[in-house]
Amino acid sequence: MTMPTWYTSVEGNARRRGGGPSRRVVELLAAVLFVVLVAGAWSAGLLSSSRIGITPDGPDADVDTVADAGRATDGADGAGRPRVVVSMSTFAGRVQDANATIASLVDQDYPLDAIYLHVPPAIERLNISGTLTESDSAVLKFWDGRVSVRRPVDLGPTTKLIGALYAERDPNTIVITVDDDVVYRPDMVRGLVESMTARPKMLSTYGC
């Protein structure tokens, strides 16, 4: 098998130095780099369920919908464009801090079909209970009807992606995942959708 240029270069330099990383070490480093890149793209990127080969069919019993923005065959403008949703996750005690992020999503200049906010009932890995504070509840009440609040099982950093795929059954739906501590520019969603349309075989990400 012909190894890529960067691989042979590393291996050749190791021979010239009389030591250096073995082939196994280089392969391990390459695998770790790949995982990091994929995780980064999932965390702050644009994905569709069909693009990653997942058919969301999770049990509805695992999700408690407080407010549901609804579903549609086409996009919000009814013009046959793809359905576009934004999904984020946070935890009890931090919902109030995500208020500015939610506001920036509501103010996007591209019409969104749904905004999902996932708040797990508990996060055992961080020893966090799911009890909402008064401030958390006030924020959720304020956005009631515009944000779909869900209480899924904690799945770590992928909660915001997997949670949205459980809710969105159409594999052509565009799912944009965002962080809960960033105020996004009004053209963020439009830029990602246009990028995906122009480069359908590539994964689009947004740099803050």
From TrEMBL:
> Which sequence ranges are marked TM in the entry?
25-47
Could you tell me the superkingdom of the organism this chain comes from? Eukaryota
| Polar residues compositional bias, start-end | 1-11
| Keyword list, A-Z | Membrane, Transmembrane, Transmembrane helix
Q: Where is this region: Disordered?
A: 1-20
Query: Under what name is this protein listed?
Result: Uncharacterized protein
Q: Origin organism of this chain?
A: Caulochytrium protostelioides
